[in-house]
């Protein structure tokens, strides 16, 4: 009889249920099959879902019980050994689907009677979430287990568990919808129907991908746990697809319709329940990893082929167990199998470093130049390339099973993780110790964050993080956060994908219909008006809808289009060379390079870099080259200031940091200069506060204020200024003499102090 449902307990054990009333247990490694239990003759199973493994902090190595829904209106809670622990009358007519939530605290069932019901772990009815006139064929939980997605004819419905919360409903297919799945890692929704199409949606119901019609209705689909792949089943058809919708592979097995698909826990294989009574097993092969001149392919489950395209050399890498995850970057290949981790250097493929894994199933590998991160169900583990465990960062409410490359980022000294409990929060850790960075407080944004990325180069104290929020705005901020709160600055809108360069801090992204490169993102903290001049923009219409940036290595950017094809873009090599010169303080070489290239963008980058590094001579040349004459004049006036502190303060002012400039002057005892800065910025209140507090130059502030009002033909209305101006006669000669005295005093101090003029 036809097989109706399948489900994995471990990576090597599968249970299947069929209309012949049998539950069978399969081991694909040893090819053994055993019968677990024979169900009563009136029970025709329809759906099976194993109870989740990681509950209450205890990680079970395997699932212990499952829920089985059947055509007699009941669901059955059955132990691993086949004992029926409980049968519950649930619906009138068949119970078409049942799903545990991610915590294992609730079960949702749907039936032919059009009802959606929520049950407790022990099988007690908690609530009836929805009722409708048509059967509900499929149901899925939201990643946070706070909403339920179910089918309603041609419509999809997302209903929150809270009463009176807004329900989202949209027409998804032209025929009856048969299957849905909602992934907890990427938050994307799949649907398949009798219109012979499968579609990908985001959690707001926006269509991201719609397939061409198949020959027959699509009867099953399922996400792999890590959210990178999904599988689609139809009549004599099994298809493997990327998360963005395009198809990697199409198989035409002789199976009849595939009614259910289940992925193994490690995501390397899947099983399908077939209409002709067979169970089909499939393994994912031929994944590619590329970096510089190396191309690596998984040719068998335990064998990789390394191809060096420079000299056409080919190496075969053999592994003891099957390969689960791999990553190739920064001169190393890191491979995790079911029990071990292998680290190969690209210089020598013969002697890998091997160490054992604690938890087993690695769900993510991230690499930086000095170390790499392994993520599994138990936590985050940072290893050196010598195989030494460096640290294991932790944060409250940590759920590592839902982390992916968009929500975790690693650099040589910093690790950033986007939290799931509160999507506005980014936790930032020191890589070597695993402790929270700075004062221990996480970075908090005003809206939900979608994607994060740390820059890879430069000093630890200047580490930056770029992130995209829910509105698709791109922000950048500094990571080291001691005392002063660094501003979070917006540098782009409608950004779909981003990547930092591996050798210098250049950021690229696809925003709206343009491919944009921020050659020096730090410009926003130095001279915000200069940022547009430091960008490179190119029309991105050739990438079609929803392109994703794969990598940004050297001066080559790899973009994956929505149809799965790869496009390679080349970015000018000169900004990266300039970054190199500046980090080595070779300013003359930088100027020479800009004169050779004769490019305004490069000059603008040099100007911002020079101001950031307080090199005013270079800044003056660069600003003159891009025609910013007012800034050249201001820089010249800074150079003529008598003391080093004044020059530093005015450079901070130049970068827009008025508060810091004032603090610096006050700490250096230059009270008059701090007052004058506020007068020049028309911060009258603050200027008067300082003058009164330090009992000096009150008349100077009042005189400048009076002159300012006279110039505009206005009368004084501010009470404080009126109070201090009472009985005070403004004598400009006296004030000028006082100012000259202050400047002379500052000159004397500068001459006496050993500080060298910068």
From TrEMBL:
Q: One short Pfam family name for this protein?
A: Beta-prop_IFT80_2nd
**Where do the WD repeat units fall?**
88-120, 170-202
- Locate the transmembrane regions by residue number: none
What the entry lists under InterPro entries is as follows: Beta-prop_IFT80_2nd (IPR056456), TPR_IFT80_172_dom (IPR056157), WD40/YVTN_repeat-like_dom_sf (IPR015943), WD40_repeat_dom_sf (IPR036322), WD40_rpt (IPR001680)
The UniProt record lists the IFT80 second beta-propeller domain at: 286-574
Q: GO terms for CC?
A: centrosome; cilium; intraciliary transport particle B
Q: Domain (IFT80/172/WDR35 TPR): give its ranges.
A: 602-748
- UniProt-recorded name of the protein: IFT80 protein
